[in-house]
Each structure stands twice: as structure tokens, then as C-alpha cells.
Write a structure and sequence with these properties.
The protein is α/β, with parallel strands linked by helices. The chain has one domain: Glutaredoxin (3-Layer(aba) Sandwich). The chain has 6 helices and 7 strands, in the order ααβββαβαβαββα. It has a 7-stranded mixed sheet, with helices on one face. 26% of the residues are buried.
């Protein structure tokens, strides 16, 4: 009788372990909508949050480092395709000091893109949310704020634009 009770207890315990949620799944996959971003803008006073993102517009979140050559190339591509990006909200996020971020914005003339916001993730929420390992990191959201795709590394901006506009990126 004790053997049956012990076997039943082990079986129940085993089944409950399988029922636990997968803790290795990154939050962006569990919650595939725009994250609760809070970034500090270059003026070191203004915060930009999820609530500031315009509704009914696709969103590109790009996490970057001013020192990363791939990120620099991606910034050049953003500027080169500013006309095609005019209906897409671009949010660039870094972890570097504000002076480096502001220098990056100036060097790559990012202020020429009126629909682009650059800020510092002062709470370091995005690295754990996206479980990212390479920069630049791109997260693309549709007009409703639902995740379309993520990409680590340099991605052709034309493919990003096609993805955000709902066309297949070939």
C-alpha cells in the first residue's frame, strides 16, 4: 500500500512540474505587444513612454550602441530611407550615456527624421524583455501594437519597411 501511495505522490509531483510555465521564454514572446518602455530623451529631463507612441502607426524599436559599427550603418540606412519611413514610428533605445547618444544623433543627422525618437533606457528594461544578445536589435510592431518580428544584427531597411507595411520581405 505504501508503494502505491509513494508512486501516486511521485506521479502527481511530476505532472505538476510539467504544468509549470516555461521560465526560459523571453517576455516579448509571452507578451507580444509594445513593451512598457520608459526612455530618457537627450534633454535629460523628458521621458518618453509607451503612451507617447502614436496610435495607428507601425513601430520599429531599435536598440543600439553608439559605438557599434552595425548600429552606425543602420542609422545611415534610416536617414537614406527617411521618405519611406515617414509613416513608421521609429524608437531608438540605448544604454550609453546621454552625451554619447546625443553625439550619435548629431553625427548621423537623425533629427531629420521627424518620426524618430532616440532615448536612453535608464531602467534597463529592454535587455531582459527582449533577451537580446546582438546589436542592433530590431523589434517590429504593427499598427495595433502587436509584435510582427524581431531581428538581431543588421537588417536591410527595405526589408524592415516591407515587414512593417505588411508586405512579404523577400
Amino acid at each position: 500500500m505504501k508503494k502505491y501511495f509513494l508512486a501516486a505522490a511521485v506521479l502527481c509531483l511530476s505532472l505538476s512540474l510539467f504544468a509549470q510555465t516555461d521560465s526560459t521564454t523571453p517576455p516579448y514572446k509571452k507578451y507580444p505587444t509594445l513593451p512598457p518602455i520608459q526612455i530618457l530623451l537627450g534633454d535629460s529631463v523628458t521621458k518618453y513612454t509607451k503612451e507617447n507612441i502614436p496610435a495607428d502607426k507601425p513601430v520599429l524599436i531599435m536598440i543600439f550602441s553608439p559605438e557599434c559599427s552595425h548600429c552606425q550603418h543602420e542609422a545611415e540606412e534610416l536617414l537614406a530611407h527617411k521618405e519611406e519611413l515617414k509613416n513608421i514610428q521609429v524608437v531608438m533605445i540605448t544604454f550609453h550615456p546621454l552625451w554619447q547618444m546625443n553625439e550619435f544623433v548629431t553625427n548621423y543627422k537623425l533629427k531629420e527624421l521627424p518620426n524618430l525618437v532616440v532615448g536612453k533606457d535608464i531602467y534597463y528594461l529592454t535587455p531582459s524583455f527582449y533577451d537580446m544578445h546582438n546589436l542592433p536589435f530590431l523589434a517590429m510592431y504593427d499598427k495595433k501594437g502587436d509584435l510582427i518580428s524581431v531581428f538581431e544584427g543588421t537588417m536591410d531597411i527595405e526589408k524592415v519597411i516591407q515587414t512593417l507595411n505588411g508586405k512579404s520581405a523577400e
